[in-house]
């Protein structure tokens, strides 16, 4: 069974999450502060963490950094904080996704299932090198993109950006992470680079670049690749 660690200091939210998760056959542990969360994570090794940022003893981003020191467990932030800066800080600290309170349970459960799938261990042989959408196909091993059976020519920068997005399929990737992975560690604030190259990818690969289905912008935070 999939084990979920719920970290929140609001008893009614913890209770609602525990009831809904157990009803869907998840094993659930709950912590009401950051210290207990880190101790439980080390002892119980959850498959995914649902984490509130506003904890009584430390900020949630400290918990994320503490977890990232030893584990790649998927972390979904649940928070009433809505400013872009705070969301970006959580993502840059190592969170995998961000859900703003109040949230719909169905959406949260869908995000949780996606996070668990991404966090499942795979070997090099079992990891798929072919990613197919209804519009185009990406061959990560061959570094090749096809659409309607025809090769699509991408520049090296376009390919690198596409590769990072595809390898993080379904996950919100912050602007800073994309910039540093594609352009290098000295880059972190040049969001205009991303706008230009993302527009180029959409023109080449989306059916309707003005209403992108696969390269989704999360305003103020980053981008998400959806199949």
TrEMBL record:
Keyword list, A-Z: Cytoplasm, DNA-binding, Phosphoprotein, Transcription, Transcription regulation, Two-component regulatory system
Modified residues (4-aspartylphosphate): 52
Location of the DNA-binding region in this protein: 127-227
CC per GO annotation: cytosol; protein-DNA complex
InterPro entries assigned to the protein according to its UniProt record, in alphabetical order: CheY-like_superfamily, OmpR/PhoB-type_DNA-bd, Sig_transdc_resp-reg_receiver, WalR-like, WH-like_DNA-bd_sf
SMART domains per UniProt: REC, Trans_reg_C
Recorded GO MF terms: cis-regulatory region sequence-specific DNA binding; identical protein binding; phosphorelay response regulator activity
TM helices/strands, residue ranges: none
GO BP term, pick one: positive regulation of DNA-templated transcription
Subcellular location: Cytoplasm
Domain OmpR/PhoB-type span(s) in chain numbering: 127-227
Domain Response regulatory: residue ranges: 3-116
Function: Member of the two-component regulatory system KdpD/KdpE involved in the regulation of the kdp operon. Upon phosphorylation by KdpD, functions as a transcription regulator by direct binding to promoter regions of target genes to positively regulate their expression.
PANTHER family, A to Z: KDP OPERON TRANSCRIPTIONAL REGULATORY PROTEIN KDPE, REGULATOR OF RPOS
Name of the protein described by the UniProt record: Transcriptional regulatory protein KdpE
Organism: Streptacidiphilus jiangxiensis
């Amino acid at each position: 069974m999939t084990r979920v660690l719920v970290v929140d200091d609001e008893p009614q939210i913890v209770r609602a999450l525990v009831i809904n998760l157990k009803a869907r056959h998840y094993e659930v542990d709950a912590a009401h502060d950051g210290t207990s969360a880190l101790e439980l994570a080390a002892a119980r090794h959850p498959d995914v963490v649902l984490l509130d940022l506003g904890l009584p003893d430390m900020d949630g981003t400290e918990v994320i950094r503490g977890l990232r020191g030893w584990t790649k467990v998927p972390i979904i932030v649940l928070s009433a904080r809505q400013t872009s800066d705070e969301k970006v800080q959580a993502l840059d600290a190592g969170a995998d996704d961000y859900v703003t309170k109040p949230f719909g349970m169905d959406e949260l459960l869908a995000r949780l299932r996606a996070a668990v799938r991404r966090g499942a261990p795979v070997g090099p042989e079992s990891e798929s090198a072919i990613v197919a959408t209804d519009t185009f196909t990406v061959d990560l091993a061959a570094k090749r993109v096809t659409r309607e059976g025809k090769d699509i020519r991408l520049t090296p920068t376009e390919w690198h950006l596409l590769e990072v997005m595809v390898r993080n399929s379904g996950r919100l990737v912050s602007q800073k992470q994309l910039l540093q992975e594609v352009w290098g560690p000295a880059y972190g604030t040049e969001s205009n680079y991303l706008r230009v190259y993302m527009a180029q990818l959409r023109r080449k690969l989306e059916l309707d670049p003005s209403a992108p289905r696969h390269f989704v912008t999360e305003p103020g935070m980053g981008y998400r690749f959806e199949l």
